[in-house]
Amino acid sequence: xxxxxxxxxxxxxxxxxxxVGLVSLAIGAHAAxxxxxxxxxKAIATEQTGDxxxxxxxxxxxxxxxHYPDASRPLAQPINDARDLSxxxxxxxxxxxxxxxxxxxxxxxxxxxxxxxxxxxxxVMLFFGGYGVQVGRxxxxxxxxxxxxxxxxxxxxxxxxxxxxxxMKERGAKAKLVVLDASRRNPYERRFRSFxxxxxxxxxxxxxxxxxxxxxxxxxDDSRSSNSVLVSELLNNLGAQATAEAAFNKTRVTxxxxxxxxxxxxxxxSLLEDIRFGG
Length: 279
Description:
The protein has 279 residues and is an alpha/beta fold.
């Protein structure tokens, strides 16, 4: 046998083995790089979806009633208030259902739509501007087609604030916010002997915050501006204050000071956590 050929063959085998090793290393490095890229992509996707906290559901029912047949003239402010407040709430991430000059059926259907959307993480807000009447220590929002001549008519045609709050509670809403701009002198007040001015005290259910335009049993006169005093000041505070409770309280304090005690809004709270309008 030629030993030179043997040496060459041995050398060829050594080179081939080395080449195979280099190819294997390259393939392994490429696979490892791909795995790291895939892991990184998965981490980013998880961060953006599964592990990221879900956005809290924000719902609002906004009702502005201005044209009551029994009134001597229309109320201009409630509809302006409803439109401006709706725009502000939408800007803050609320899904807003706004109803103007609502009949009893309109209001009931709107409450039904609201109830259908409520989830366990929902922050739910109700605004009503128009006429409110208290009967039997309960406050009622009055639709534009109400025919009121006695107490029983208020219960029949009005929508109880407490009933709407109970519906929010039953649906498991995380927090309940209510703004009532309805402490006005109304066209029904002289029609039955036991009439009481303004709204009744509203006891908030758990994790609720309620703002009314006047102290229970009191009424507030409408200003000549396009928005009511309550909504105008509330709009100023929605973005300026850190929490809903701070915005409601600032609204109460400012109106009380500016009016020199003539109009003192009421704030009732049973909130168990901070609720923010901006997120």
